[in-house]
Amino acid sequence: MGADFSQPQRQSSIGILVMFFYTLQQYARALWPMIVIWIFKFDEVNKLYFFLGMIAVFVSIGVISYLKYLNFTFFLDSENEEFIITEGVFNKTKTSIQLRKIQQVNINQSFIQKLIGVYELDVDTAGSNKKEGTIKAISHELALELKFRLLENEELKTTIGTETIALEETEQKLFEAAHPFIKISFLSLLKVGITSNYGRSIALLVIFFTTIYENFQNFGDESKVYEEKVGSYIDKNLVLQTILTSIVLLFVVVLVVNVIRTVFKYYDYKITRQKGSLLLSFGLLNTKSTIIKPEKVQITTVKRNYFQKKMGILELKIKQATSGEKEERKSIIEIPGCSEAERDSILRLLFHKIPEKGLMLQPNFRKLIFSVFISIGLPLFGFLGIGYWLEPIIFEYSYMVPVYLVVIGLIQYFRFKNNRLFIHENFIIKQSGAWDISNDIIEPSKIQAITTSQLFWHKKLNIGSITLHTAGGNIAFQLANYSIVKQQVNLWLYEIETSDSNWM
Amino acid sequence: MENFTNETIDTRQLPKFEEVTFTNLHPKYIWVVLINLALFIGILILVPILFSMFKPELFSGRVWLIIGVVIPIFSVLLVAFSIIGFKKKGFAFREHDVLFRFGLIATNTIVIPYNRVQHVALHEGLISRYFGLAKIEIFTAGGSSSDIEIPGIEKEQAENIKQLLMGKIQKQL
After folding, report:
1. Residue A449 is nearest to which of B15, B18, B112, comparing CB atoms?
2. Which of A74, A90, A98 to mutate against chain B (most B CBs within 10 Å)?
3. ipTM of the predicted structure?
4. Residue B35: its chain A contacts at CB < 8 A?
5. Residue A278: half-sphere exposure toward Cβ, Cα within 13 Å
6. Within this chain, do residues B96 and B78 fall inside the same structural domain, yes or no?
7. Which of B38, B54, B85 is the last residue of a domain?
8. What is the reported pTM?
9. pLDDT tens digit string along A401-411?
10. Is B39 part of any domain?
11. DSSP 8-state symbol, A377
12. Alpha carbons A359 and A421: distance in angstroms, whole number
C-alpha cells in the first residue's frame, strides 16, 4: 500500500477541468433565464461585447475552479482515526468524519468525469440526507486505495459481528424450522381493502359531488328558460335520484378499486424469520421482498380504525434507519391486515417484549383551540373576506359552511382526544389520528437528539412541546405538562449517555 | 457480577438540562448578522428603487406606495428580530452532551448526546472570517432537524471545541 493519505493532499490536477465543468453547470443552471433571453436577442446584441462577455465568464469560472481546486484538500488522520476534508474559497468548511462512523464509500463516474478519466469518491455516514464528503476528481487506483483505507475499520467491525451472528444462528435454526411465521390471508386483505384509505375515497367523493352539483346548476338554469315550474320539479327529482345513485355507485367503485389495489400489492404476504431478522415477501404480479433487522428498526407504527378494530385487523408500519432521501420511501415497510396475535409476535421479535403504555401525557386544551383556529377560523375568515370584498358569488355556496364546520370540527375534536404520549421505562408511544388511530412506538435508546420548545406565554401555564429525533423520523408531541417533559428528557439523556446502546 | 447493582434512579436527582447556564454567542457575531442583513436589505431596497426610476409604469402609484411602506417596516422588523434572535441564542457543552438554545417566540432547546454525533464540521463564512469567527456544525443520524449549528465562536475556541467533540465521540467505542 504505497499511497500516503496522512498529509493533506489535493485532487488530481486534471480535476480543475472537472471543477470547471461543474461550476459551469452550476452557473448555467442558476442563470438559464438570462441565457435564454440572450439567445433570443442574439441579433440585437453587440457581437464584440457578447464575445468579450463570454470570455470574461469563462475566465472567471476557470479562476474560480482553480481556486476551488487549490482549496480542496483531504487527508486521513490516523492518530484520531478521522477523515478530514477542507473546502471552500471564501466560505471555508472543514468536515471531520470519524472512520468508524462511515457507512459507505462509493466510487462513481459521471459523464464529464468519464471524458476526463477521473473518478468521484463519496463518503456516506448514517442519517443526514446529503453525502458528507465528496471528492470530485481522483484517479481510480487512488480511489480504490482510499476506499480500502476508509473501510478498514468497517471490516474489523463486521468480522466481529459475523462471529456473534454465527453463534446465534446455530441456536435459532432448530427453532425456526418448527416455526412457520405469519401469512396474511386473502380474507384479511379484503378486509384491509374495505376499511382503509377512506380519506382518499372521501376526497374523491367530494370532488365528484361538487362537479355533479355544478353541472346540475347549469342544467337548472337552462331548464328555467323553456320549462315551467312543473317541468323543473320533475327534473330536480330525477337529478337528485341520479346523484344519490351515482354516490352509492362511486362508493362501491372506490371500495372495489381499494380492494383490488390492496390485493395486487400485498397478495400472498409472507413473513419468515431468519437469523433474528424478518424476511417479507408480497405482491401478485411482481413479488417484492424486503428484510427487517430488528436493530435497524427506529419507529414502529400500529394503525387501525374503528371498522378494523371490529374486524380484528390492524396495520403495522416499520421505519428503519436510513441514509439518504432516496431510500426513505423504500425503508418504510407496511404489513397490512395483521391480527392482534400476529402483531404481538412481530413486536416481540422487534423489541423482545410487548411494548407497554406507561405514564400518559395529554395535550392541553389550547392545542384544540389552536387547531380549530387554523383549520376552521382562518378558512372561514378567508371565505367571508373573499365574499365581502372580491367575489360575492361564493356566498351561494354558504350551505357548505355548516357541513365544513361539523366535519372538520369532529375531525379536530377526535384528533385532539386521541392525541396521547405514553412514557414507559423501555418504550415511548405516541398515539394520534382522528379516524385511523396510530401508535408510534420507539425505544428511548433510538433517540438521536431531543428538542424541547416552549412559547413564552406558555411559561406560566407550564406547558410545552417535545420532539424526539430518531434516524427514522421524528416523534413530536405538543403542549404537554412541561415539568414532566423536562424530567423525562433528563431521564432519557441519562439513559442514553450512560449506556453505549446500539441504535442501529 | 459482584459489582453489578441495579438501584432505582431518583429522577429528581438527575442533572437538569433546563438549569444549565448557556454561553452567549461572541459579541462580535452581531456584526456578522448585521452586515449580512444590511446586504440583504440593501438589495431589497435597491431593486425597487431602480425599477421605480427606470420603469415607473410597472406598477400603479398605489402599489408603489404600498411597496414604499411595507419594505421599511419589514426591514426594521427583520433587524429587530435578528438582534433579539442573536441575544436568545446560547450553547453549552456538558460532560456528555451539547445543548443549543434558540428562538424568539418559542424557546427551543436541542440536546445531542456525544455518543449520537455522527460527524462535526467547522464552517467559516466570508464575513465571519474577517471577524475571526467560525461556525460549528454537529451532525447526527436524525436528519437535518436534529443537527446543531453554533455560529459566532472564536476560531481558536471553535477548533478546541471540535477537538473536544471528536475526542468525546472517540471515547464511546
Report:
1. B112
2. A98
3. 0.90
4. none
5. 25
6. no
7. B85
8. 0.81
9. 898 899 999 99
10. yes
11. I
12. 8
Cβ-Cβ pairs closer than 8 A, A with B, add up to: 160
Distance CA A291, CA A17 (A): 43
Residue B96: inside a domain, yes or no? yes
Q: Are B76 and B43 in a shared domain? A: yes
In a domain, B37, yes or no: yes
Residues B104 and B139 occupy one common structural domain = yes
Looking at residue B171, its pLDDT comes to 61
Work out the angle at residue A337's Cα, subtended by the Cα atoms of residues A332 and A342, and round it to the nearest 5 degrees.
Answer: 90
B48 touches chain A (CB under 8 A): no
- pLDDT at residue A162 is higher than 50: no
Residue written as cell 473546502? A87
- Say how far apart CA B70 and CA B80 lie, in whole Å: 15
Domain span at residue B59 reads 29-85
Same domain as B104, residue B78: no
CATH number of the CATH domain containing B109: 2.30.29.30
For residue B148, which of A326, A128, A444 has the smallest C-alpha distance? Answer: A128
Q: Do B166 and A96 touch (CB under 8 A)?
A: yes
Shared domain check, B81 and B143: no
Residues 114-143 (B) with a CB less than 8 A from some CB of A: 114-116, 118-126, 129, 139-143
| A455-502 per-position pLDDT tens digit | 999 999 999 999 999 888 899 999 999 999 999 999 999 989 888 777
pLDDT band at B136 (very low <50, low <70, confident <90, very high): very high
* CA A209 distance to own-chain centroid: 32
Residues B100 and B123: their CA atoms lie apart, in Å, by 17
Q: Mutate which of B81, B109, B118 to disrupt the A interface (most A C-beta within 10 Å)?
A: B118
pLDDT at A179: 54
Residue numbers of B between 83 and 102 with CB closer than 8 Å to A: 96-97
Query: Looking at the structure, do residues B106 and B61 belong to the same domain, yes or no?
Result: no
Query: Does residue A288 register a pLDDT over 50?
Result: yes
State which residue of chain A sits closest to B147, comparing Cα positions.
A449
Residue A94 and residue A104 in contact, taking contact as beta carbons nearer than 8 Å: no
In a domain, B3, yes or no: no
Q: What is the mean pLDDT of residues B133-138?
A: 92
Q: Are A103 and A300 in contact (CB under 8 A)?
A: no
Same domain, B69 and B122: no
pLDDT, one tens digit per residue, over B16-61 is: 998 999 999 999 999 999 999 999 999 999 988 888 888 878 777 8
When scoring A90, A469, A481 by the number of chain B Cβ atoms within 10 A, the one with the most, hence best to mutate, is A469
Of B85, B102, B128, the residue that ends a domain is B85
Total domains in the fold of chain B? 2
- Residues B33 and B58 occupy one common structural domain: yes
Of residues B172 and A167, which shows the higher confidence score? B172
| Reported confidence tier of residue A169, pLDDT bands at 50, 70, 90 | very low
Kindly determine whether residue A129 and residue B144, on different chains, have CB atoms separated by under 8 Å. yes
